[in-house]
Structure formats: structure tokens, C-alpha cells
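quick one before i forget lol
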Amino acid sequence: MNVDKDLQKQARKSLRGTDPSIARYMQVLEHEVCHLEELNAQLNLKIEVLQQQRAG
């Protein structure tokens, strides 16, 4: 995802300050995003390997 990291940090900080429940929700979302990014990286590696096997 192409998102300005500094802008993203600012938005998270301002949201956290508004309501504790939003802060908890944002924390859960960030954790889930990290997990999905790791899975995506693993899948991309597997796709690369499969493509190399087909080409080779």
C-alpha cells in the first residue's frame, strides 16, 4: 500500500487522543495489518518460486 508513513502516524496519534476505545481499535487494526503484510510477503515469495519453476 502506498501511504505516506508520516501522515499515517499523525492520523493515528490524533485518533488515539480522541477516545481510548479508538486507540484500542487502532492498535488491533495495526496488529492485523502487520500480520497481513507478513502473509502477503510469504505468498509473494511462493509465487516467485512457482514462476521460476515454470520458467526453468
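fyi DSSP finds two helices and no strands in the chain.
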